[in-house]
# Entry
Amino acid sequence: MTAPAELLALAVETAREAGRLVRGRREAVTRMVVASTKSTPTDVVTDSDTAAEVLIRERLLGARPGDGMLGEEGGQVAGQSTVIWVVDPIDGTVNYLYGLPDYAVSIAAQVDGRTVAGVVHNPVSGETWTAMVGEGAWLLDRRIGVSGCAQLSQALVATGFGYDARRRARQAEVLRHVLPRVRDIRRAGSASLDLCALGTGRLDGYYERGLAAWDLAAGGLIAQEAGAVIAGLRGRPAGPELVVAAGPELFPALHDLLEPLGADRDD
# Structure
C-alpha cells in the first residue's frame, strides 16, 4: 500500500501548480468567460476549470498511472490500483468568475473508498491546508484545531446554497430559523474553504445540502483531523443530503437545530 504521506506530497505539489495556473489565467483578463453550465444556468464552468483539471489529471496519473480519478469537470477515470483521486479544480467557480478571492483547488486521495490524504489550496491567499488520516491537520506549517465553541448562540456558522431554485428557496427557509439562534451566518461560496475555516477555528459550525464527493473529500478530512464532527442528520453519514460539521461540544446543538427544520429535504 502506498503511504498516505507520498500521496499527500504529490497532491500538494499538484494543487499548487494548478493554483498558479488558474490564478494566472484570472489575472490575465478583466472578466472571465463562462464556457458552459451544468445543473442550471447559474452553475457555471470556465475554461480555467477544465484546464486545471486536465493539468491535475496529467500530473497525478502521470506519476501514478494505475490510479483512478473522480473529477468535477471530467468525470471518472477508472484505475487498477486501490487509489482514487477526488478532485475539484476550482471550488468556488462563481467567486473565481467574479474575481472574488474565495476559491480553492481541492485534491483528496482515497484508498479503498476511505479518504487518507487531502489538500485544499487557495491560490490568492497562498494558504494551503493539508491532512492525513490519523495525523492531524495543518495550515502551512502550523497544526490547526477547531474553536471549542460550545454555545449555539455564540457560534459563527457557515452555509451554502444550491443552484436549483426550489432547493434555494427551501434553504432560505431553513436559514430563516437558524439565523436568530446563532451569533451570525457566513456564506463564502466554497465548501472546501468553509470546512478548512472550521478546522482552523475561523468558524464554529457549518452545514450545507447538496455537496458532491469533490466538495467534501479533502476539506472534510482536514476538518475531521482538526477535531470536527462531520455527519448527516439522525445518524446518517455526511453526504449530498446534508453535511453538518462542528466541534464536538457544538455539534449536538447544531444537529438538533437543523433536524426538525428538515434541512436535508427540498420540500
The chain has a mean pLDDT of 93. The chain is about 35% helix and 25% strand. Residues 4-27 form the longest helix (24 residues).
